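ok here's the first one, seq then struct tokens
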Amino acid sequence: MSGMHDDHSELGEMDLRVRALESVLTEKGYIDPAALDEIVDTYQTKIGPRNGARVVARAWVDPAYRAWLFRDATAAVASLGYSGRQGEHLVALENTEAVHHLVVCTLCSCYPWPVLGLPPVWYKSAPYRSRAVRDPRGVLADFGVVLPSSTQIRVWDSTAEVRYLVVPRRPSHTEALDEEALAGLVTRDSMIGTGLARSPARDP
């Protein structure tokens, strides 16, 4: 699955069908392309993954919220105003030096939209869905994440009943950053487990 980001950038059969259907509906006047673009943009840039980044940042700075998040992620996330379809029954997973969590949906593409936005194309791809279970360490390496052999990798299979949010490790040298600045270090991939939070020392 080397070059995963590039290998799955082309439109698949289902995406082509969706595009064709969208064109037909637009020509017949059933949908407004501008309104559709606004909906997509909302999920991609406004609803998530910025929402998830704010959840993680709050957990990094607020011990009480952090405990609540790991006890009842659905309620803790909803308290910040992030809830809705695909956001029910959330479970938060804490990455540590000893354990790294990786999320996949082996059957389809269940994904916590309210906190992460729309799922990336590679998340829905068959190679990721199958190999993440068989060779999680190799998948992480493809994403540029090389963990010590002592770090255990746990793979979580997202379903229609339960979806997961990974809380990445807080980068070092961020003690002086406020919550907003910390949220800027949290990436979508780090909340799936295929990435790490950015380090301000390496990524200005």
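and now the second one, same deal
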Amino acid sequence: MGAEGTDPVASLPGAPEPWAPSSIPELRSGPPYLMTEMIAAEPAMAERVAQRSLANPAMSQLLESTRLAVERNEPITTTGCGTSEHAAMAAAALLADAIGPERAHLVGASQALDLARRPQPGGLVIGFSHEGGTWATNEALTRSRATGARTALVTVSRRSPGAAAVELVLETREQDQSWCHTVGYLSPIVVAAVLSSALAGGELDPVALRRLLEIATDELAAQDAASALATCVRLVVAGAGIDLVSARELALKVEEGSELPATALHTETVRHGHLAAATAKTGFVLLLTDAEPGGEPVRDQALAALRSARALGMPTVAILGARLGTQVPLELTPAGRLTAPEANGIAPLAEAILGSAIPLQLLAERLARARGRDPDPIGRDDPRQAAAAEA
């Protein structure tokens, strides 16, 4: 992957000093875009974030607060907005898995505006906000803390407004330079994976994480799949369990980056009426990593959804776990497939969400290229879109 100004192994800049929200990214006439460079930087960045998190005293404090909530049967809620909401959903899944089935019900993700409206009166609330300036997330944290919850925030800088609202701050330190966030999605999930690994009695291996992400970087497969989807009028993206988080993030990245309408659905939901609006101009992307127990029904329904897409002539792409390639017939993915790889030393659920990140990001970035869009400003280089964002 070429780079115009970012060394893929160098640390990314942190938040401005004094803290300020980011301004619209520089516009480029063609690739590599800032999003391109951010994806290239992610393997080394993720290794650094994991190493810093392991050494961070705030991580030990958050681990203790999480264990205390579990011992007391108190709720543990993760929260955020947009891409950070997806990171919060991933974190909730990882923490529930680490806690185990008997007390997994204590953990849940909440959209920040919903939590601000009904703040949590006790237990633990962990917020996710890349820059730390999202109003709804900061309100949810402030109000939950005021009603008795212990609060923490995963963000770039402890100098942000969100950091001032909580008791514990876990800094990722490296800020996404594109508004089509990739680093802003992956880095908080790395922090959550470190926390969940520790909660389960292990330790996330930063080197194994970097290798996983390097293996996941298949630019040619992403380019071929994007070319096949570029003329679609909309996309349907499907996943189940932790893969639904990835599906939601892919749908958001596609809409932000390439201005192509995309809808994320649960794999089981796809065939419950939604196909009535699908045609041969509707693209279908399936995420299936098979990371969770009892996966056979999910695999069966995923194959059924692929068969339905084939019957409608839908251009279809799959992002598959490494073990599933031979179980999904090639004719069911005529527009291509990408692999979410495996790595020794990383728990299956963390491996699934982390290993899917770069494939889905590359697909979105290459789709933006194929449609002649600069993904970095997420459409806000258009004055009407900019006005809509501020309305």
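notes on #2: The first helix runs from residue 34 to 55. The chain has a mean pLDDT of 96.
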